Amino acid sequence: MTRRKTLTDTEIAAHMLDALAEKGAKALTFGTISQRSGLAPATLAQRYGSVDGMVRHALACEWARLSQAVSEVHSEAHLSTKGAQALLKNLATPSAEVLSLSLRDAELCKAAETWRAQVEAAIAARRGGGSRGRESAAMIFAAWQGRFLWDAAGGKTFRLSDLIKALP
User: Fold this and answer.
1) Residues 58, 138: Cα–Cα separation, whole Å
2) CA torsion 109→112→114→120, rounded to 10°?
3) What phi and psi values does residue 129 have, to the nearest 5 degrees?
4) In the chain, N or C: fewer CB atoms in 10 Å?
5) Which residue has the higher pLDDT, 146 or 109?
6) Domains (range + CATH), the chain
7) What kind and span of H or E run contains 87?
8) CA nearest 89: which of 42, 136, 126?
9) pTM of the entire structure?
10) Among residues 59, 65, 48, which one has the least CA distance to residue 34?
11) The three-state (H, E, C) secondary structure of 15-70, written as one string
């Protein structure tokens, strides 16, 4: 089988994120991504300089994708409490691995913070805005992310819609 000679950075990032989801951070090597993408390890090394550079780029692509998704879903969901539920239901969320790796790099941490602020602003807009809306949005965001992180460990302990209704 001949190797592909070109692949976009976005396509390489997708291969990396798939490897991360399937096998964890230890799978993020030039060899593994070479096998998945069909590009030579030397090509990847030349393009990104190091494995850390390749990982950083893939994570930056993921945060850009997640931010774009917030913009798209934000424009589609109604500005109401039910709209907040619809927004969160239709919104992509970063994996625990993506979040964990991003916290090790200042630029990626900033991208994660920006994404969180976008989501909270979109929720707050559906909660009436103002300081109460922002405060409720922060609590809803924390509960939403907490559920995603812990769902894999077993079962849902509460319905997010019940929390949204209970908050002022």
Assistant:
1) 27
2) -140
3) 70, -160
4) N
5) 109
6) 9-166 (1.10.357.10)
7) helix 81-90
8) 126
9) 0.86
10) 48
11) HHHHHHHHHCHHHCCHHHHHHHHCCCHHHHHHHHCCHHHHHHHHHHHHHHHHHHHH
- Of the candidates 106, 96, 17, 6, the one whose C-alpha atom is nearest the C-alpha of residue 58 is 17
Q: How far apart are CA 146 and CA 140, in angstroms?
A: 10
d(CA 104, CA 156): 29
| pLDDT tens profile 5-35 | 688 999 999 999 999 999 999 999 999 999 9
Phi, psi of 91, deg, nearest 5 = -95, 135
Residue with tokens 């950083």: 56
For 62-78, write each residue's pLDDT tens digit: 999 999 999 998 888 77
Distance, in Å, from the CA atom of 129 to the CA atom of 78, rounded to the nearest integer, reads: 14
The Cβ-side half-sphere exposure at 132, using a 13 Å CA radius, reads 5
| Contact (Cβ atoms closer than 8 angstroms) between residue 84 and residue 127 | yes
Q: How far apart are CA 81 and CA 64, in angstroms?
A: 27
- Token output for 11: 């396509």
Q: Distance between CA atoms of 5 and 43, rounded to whole angstroms?
A: 9
Q: Cα 3 to chain center, whole Å? A: 30
